[in-house]
């Protein structure tokens, strides 16, 4: 997508200050590993904040009705899907920014932009009076955090030699993905700490079978804003930029390469699954086994009652962070293995694992409400199946990012990383729309068919002995 570092331009505005004069990570004699690793850690910190901003709505939306809003299931699914739609569209923009803006400006300004949607959510959860369209706008703006991925990752790849890109990009993407789990894990604790509520008062949140409890839901958003400001300052003061020659037209020649399209499909299978499930996991759990299922729970507020004697309604917040956590750690942990063994074999493992885990989960997508025991057993099958899906999607996230620098020439690899990430970011959107229109069972069956196709592509094109593009 962009030219190699050795093709750096040293003229004009790129002749000093922020811009490096020459940079060839393949030359051990001149490669500055200190600058490369500093770039990795600063951009990873900012990318984690990007994912926090992107998935903050997924931690808030399942609780909107409990806070006093009255949205339908489909409205909530669409709202949870909107950050994914925005991220997919915005990643197409961010994928062309690294050669144009440079690492320093792009990371700094992007991190500052996260403040707008985060602040908006913090304000609007305090009073259940915001119109639906306004919350949809905030959900769309949260997609800026998802869009950043397609700029941050190619930009970081400029700083590392090919032999280390699997590890470097695995660390950045894996720790960045942890932002999903962090925001979902910490939200229940943050909203319970009144001392953090510097701005705004408390709210009453209805809990099934219990009296409403006092919460400070604005904390779930406001606590991240100071860190976003710190991240922008760190990026502005500590980062440099590699001067790459590539205008927008040149960056789009990747679309003439058939492997661009194959790798796009594989990354949809892996990151599309991870991001889609991360955004919808809480709603899906709630609507199948929690307060969103009218066969299990009736009433609202203090009048809420559980209809299945002996069944304990799961507190979604206690489980929903586990999936993104497992997926992010798998991406981080398997990245070094892809450097040693190649990415294609692990993409194959990812696809086979996804088929098996999706098939295991499907029976649990139709809860058996005849008794508390059958309902609890179904919930446990649903939970373990979903966690397995997250695991194998995380493995595939690591392996596909190892494959791309191996398959494509240097000038195109960054662009392919940005493009595939852009399309896979639509995962939350398509998952939300698919579940709400087709139903969970039909959508998961389609997921199996798609994964089988991707397994075939991986084997024939990249993993088998004598494959055209071993990677």
What would you call the structural class?
Answer: mainly alpha
CATH architecture: Up-down Bundle
Shape: globular
SSE sequence, one letter per element: HHHHHHEEHHHHEEHHHHHH
Low-confidence stretches: 1-13
Number of domains: 1
Question: Major sheet, described briefly?
Answer: 2 strands, antiparallel
CATH homologous superfamily heading: MFS general substrate transporter like domains
Radius of gyration based on Cα positions: 22 Å
- Enumerate how many helices there are, as a single number: 16
Question: What kind of assembly state do the chains in view correspond to?
Answer: single chain
How far apart, in Å, are the first and last alpha carbons? 19 Å
Mean pLDDT: 87
What is the spatial order of strands in the main beta sheet?
1-2
Number of strands: 4
Beta-strand level of the residues, as a percent range?
Answer: under 5%
CATH hierarchy, class: Mainly Alpha
Roughly how much helix do the residues carry, as a percent range?
A: 55-70%
**How is the CATH topology named?**
Growth Hormone, Chain: A
Kindly list the characteristics that best describe this protein:
two-stranded antiparallel sheet, 16 helices, mainly alpha, disordered N terminus, Growth Hormone, Chain: A, 471 residues
Helix-strand layout with pairing:
Layout: H1 33-60, H2 73-94, H3 97-124, H4 132-147, H5 149-157, H6 165-190, E1 203-205, E2 213-215, H7 219-222, H8 225-238, H9 248-251, H10 258-289, E3 297-298, E4 305-306, H11 322-341, H12 344-361, H13 372-407, H14 410-424, H15 427-438, H16 440-463
Helix pairs in contact: 1-2, 1-3, 1-4, 1-6, 1-8, 1-10, 2-4, 2-5, 2-10, 2-14, 2-15, 3-4, 3-5, 3-8, 5-6, 5-14, 6-11, 6-13, 10-13, 10-14, 10-15, 10-16, 11-13, 12-13, 12-16, 13-14, 15-16
């Amino acid at each position: 997508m962009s030219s190699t570092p050795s093709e750096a331009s040293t003229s004009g505005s790129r002749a000093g200050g922020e811009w490096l004069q020459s940079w060839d990570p393949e030359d051990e004699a001149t490669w500055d590993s200190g600058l490369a690793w500093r770039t990795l850690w600063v951009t990873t910190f900012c990318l984690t904040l990007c994912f926090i901003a992107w998935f903050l709505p997924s931690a808030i939306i399942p609780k909107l009705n409990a806070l006093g809003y009255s949205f339908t299931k489909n409205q909530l699914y669409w709202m949870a899907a909107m950050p994914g739609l925005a991220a997919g569209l915005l990643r197409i923009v961010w994928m062309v920014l690294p050669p144009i803006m440079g690492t320093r400006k792009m990371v700094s300004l992007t991190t500052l932009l996260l403040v707008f949607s985060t602040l908006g959510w913090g304000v609007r959860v305090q009073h259940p009076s915001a119109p639906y369209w306004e919350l949809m706008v905030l959900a769309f703006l949260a997609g800026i955090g998802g869009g950043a991925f397609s700029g941050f990752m190619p930009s970081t790849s400029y700083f590392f030699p090919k032999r280390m890109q699997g590890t470097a990009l695995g660390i950045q993407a894996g720790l960045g993905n942890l932002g999903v789990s962090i925001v979902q894990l910490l939200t229940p604790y943050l909203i319970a700490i009144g001392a953090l509520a510097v701005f705004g008062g408390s709210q009453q949140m209805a809990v099934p079978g219990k009296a409403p409890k006092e919460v400070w839901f604005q904390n779930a958003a406001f606590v991240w804003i100071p860190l976003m400001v710190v991240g922008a300052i760190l990026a502005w003061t500590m980062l440099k930029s590699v001067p790459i020659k590539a205008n927008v037209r040149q960056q789009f020649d990747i679309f003439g390469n058939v492997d661009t399209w194959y790798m796009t499909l594989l990354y949809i299978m892996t990151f599309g699954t991870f991001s889609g499930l991360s955004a919808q996991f809480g709603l899906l759990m709630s609507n199948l086994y929690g307060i969103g299922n009218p066969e299990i729970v009736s009433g609202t507020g203090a009048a809420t009652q559980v209809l299945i004697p002996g069944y304990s309604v799961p507190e979604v917040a206690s489980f929903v962070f586990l999936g993104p956590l497992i997926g992010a750690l798998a991406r981080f942990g398997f990245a070094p293995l892809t450097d040693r063994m190649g990415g294609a074999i692990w993409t194959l493992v990812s696809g086979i694992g996804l088929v098996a885990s999706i098939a295991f989960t499907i029976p649990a997508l139709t809860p058996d409400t005849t008794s508390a025991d059958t309902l609890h057993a179904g919930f446990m099958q649903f939970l373990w199946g979903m966690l397995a899906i997250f695991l194998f999607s995380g493995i595939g996230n690591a392996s596909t990012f190892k494959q791309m620098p191996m398959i494509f020439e240097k000038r195109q690899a960054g662009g392919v990383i940005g493009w595939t990430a852009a399309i896979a970011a639509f995962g939350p959107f398509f998952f939300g729309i698919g579940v709400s229109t087709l139903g969970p069972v039909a959508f998961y069956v389609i997921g199996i068919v798609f994964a089988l196709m991707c397994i075939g592509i991986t084997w024939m094109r990249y993993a088998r002995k004598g494959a055209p593009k071993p990677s």
